[in-house]
Amino acid sequence: MLVERGLQAMNVELVSEAYAIAANFLRHSGAIPVSLVTNERLLGLIIKLLQQGEFNKIRLANKAIAKFQQTEARAVA
């Protein structure tokens, strides 16, 4: 899945760890359902942040959570 998106092999682990952190938080907060299915929107946010130069997994997760919640808030409003 990540290889198809053109990510370098060294970044796959970083993306997967950041995704796991963010998805775990969002699942516990009720923003995304508890499921084994990858949330494509969250994954896309993490990949975009990585492409913009963010390489710290905690910052990647936190920024992706913030952006995810912003788009959720706009959709509700």
What is the strand and helix layout of this fold?
Blueprint: H1 9-29, H2 40-51, H3 57-76
Could you explain the architecture of this structure?
The protein is built from three helices and no strands. The relative contact order is 0.17. The model has no long low-confidence stretch (mean pLDDT 87). The chain has helices at residues 9-29, 40-51, 57-76. Helices cover 69% and strands 0% of the residues. Helix 1 crosses helix 2, helix 1 (9-29) crosses helix 3 and helix 2 (40-51) packs across helix 3 (57-76). With 77 residues, it is mostly helical.
How would a crystallographer describe the biggest sheet?
Answer: none
Number of strands: 0
Helical residues, percent:
55-70%
Q: Please tell me the overall pLDDT.
A: 87
- What is the string of helix and strand elements? HHH
Query: Between the first and last Cα atoms, what is the distance in angstroms?
Result: 33 Å
Low-confidence stretches: none
Structural class: mainly alpha
Tell me the Rg in angstroms. 12 Å
Number of helices: 3
Taken as a percent bin, the fraction of beta residues is under 5%
Which outline best applies?
Answer: globular
